[in-house]
Amino acid sequence: MGQNRAVEAQPGGYKTIVYVICMVAALGGLLFGLDQGFIANSLDTLTQHYQFAVHDKESYSAILATGGIFGALLSGIFARFLGRKRSLVLAGLIFTAASAYSAILPPLPILSACRFALGFGVGIASFIVPLYLSETAPAAIRGSMGTLFQLLITIGIFLIALSNVFIARLFTKPATSLPLMFLTVTLFAALMFAGSFILPESPRWLMLKGRKEQAVSVLRKTLNSQQEIDREISEIEEALHGPQGAGVSIIFRGYFFKVLLVGILLQVFQQLVGINMMIYYSPTIFGYAGMKGLLAMMTVPTVNMLFTFPAIHLVEKWGRKKLLYVGAVAMLVTMVASGLAFHAIGSVSDPALIGGAPKMVLLVSAILYIFGFAVSWGPVVWLVCSEIFPLEGREIGMTITTMVNWTFAGLVMANALSFMRTYGNSSIFYVFAGFCVLAIVFVALFVPETKGITLEELEFNLKKGARLKQLGNRN
Ligand code: BGC
């Protein structure tokens, strides 16, 4: 994505408008979170209004992921031909139209089509926002603006969980509360849509299209001195003379295929450790154990958001692999503990008869599980996937790995509840625990440590044939 140069921090070289630009663009991350987090505390209300069976709950949840796969697939094309800004406007338009139309509570097939469209928007946003931020934010704040994206996803998940809880409590009739829930998303979507018009186009894309004068005038808005502008322009020019976006055939080059597999498997494991069962269905699962109320509805989104903050710092201090180990072990232990708690509950369905101990184990496990994910596999997987690909194949590598993420997210969303119903409530926790074990082995054997090494060095090691685990070793 044009940022594989070691960039030197130039504090004070940019104007404060940059923060406004980055915040507006990062609203795309917030919408990702709002749509991802929408289900958890609206599922009961949706079920009442649309008479959902278990299968409908899963399909309606998972169709977002299907849209995400297509959005991610096409976003590389949008980014290149429409430009970054217009792609963001498009995502904002889709978010606004699909959430507003959902608010009129159309028949289920149309409501599902709207959720597919929202997923399509999320798929575009999950590709374009990090790209736009990395291309537009000045060097000194590029890293922190990049991590803003994951943070906003978790803030979005938290905000919508909270507002859906309150809407459902204040307005008990689904015909009133559901439109309000969708309109909350529409409000933020409209903000992003309107805001995206004021965004400047990415200077790098303008240069790519040969529009140097426009690129300079964008940089004049964000940078303080002519010297800064000249420096940025010559960096972009240099990058444009380097290797450019390769075709799909790059997948078959040995060095690329190796890192592609690492990226794909990281995304597969990020989903198969079960995060979206917790994000989507934790209130439902707590309900199976007789727990209702605020604690059941807000624990997961709150812990998820809070522990993303330390991750941003720890990822540079401890490194990626250590965090992945800590997270996977925490998730392994807590998945086994949750499975045992459901074992203890057995087939008791009367909440009054379920003992306090298994409930406590479930609650503490959920907190530690989400801590384990938020501090590690959540941000680290996206980060490593943006680091390991050589420049000429970065767009294609990130498109494929993003699509894999959505595919496996969809698989979990579409099957978790019926799996529990068919094989017993504890079964799914043991399955996810099994994937945590595989994830630990995979990290130990194949994942490189990418902390403290420039992307050029990584690329150099990769092309000279270094083993995967040694890719991050400095020469
Ligand atoms: C994952 C999403 C998940 C979210 C939770 C992201 O990194 O890709 O699937 O819902 O984290 O915070």
Number of distinct beta strands: 0
Binned, the helix content reads: over 70%
Question: Between the first and last Cα atoms, what is the distance in angstroms?
Answer: 24 Å
Give a list of the ligands.
beta-D-glucopyranose
SSE series: HHHHHHHHHHHHHHHHHHH
Largest sheet: none
| Unreliable stretches covering 5 or more consecutive residues | 1-11
Class computed from helices, strands and strand pairing: mainly alpha
SS strand fraction: under 5%
**What's the mean pLDDT score?**
90
Question: How large is the count of helical segments?
Answer: 19
| Quaternary class | single chain
Outline: globular
* Rounded radius of gyration (Å): 22 Å
Write structural notes for this entry:
With 475 residues, this protein is mainly alpha-helical. It contains 19 helices and no strands. The protein has helices at 17-37, 43-50, 54-81, 84-102, 108-136, 142-170, 174-198, 203-208, 212-222, 226-241, 254-272, 275-288, 293-306, 308-317, 320-345, 356-387, 394-423, 427-446, 455-463. The chain starts with 16 loop residues before the first helix and ends in a 12-residue tail after the last helix. The model is unreliable at 1-11 (pLDDT under 50). It binds beta-D-glucopyranose.
List key phrases describing it.
disordered N terminus, mainly alpha, 475 residues
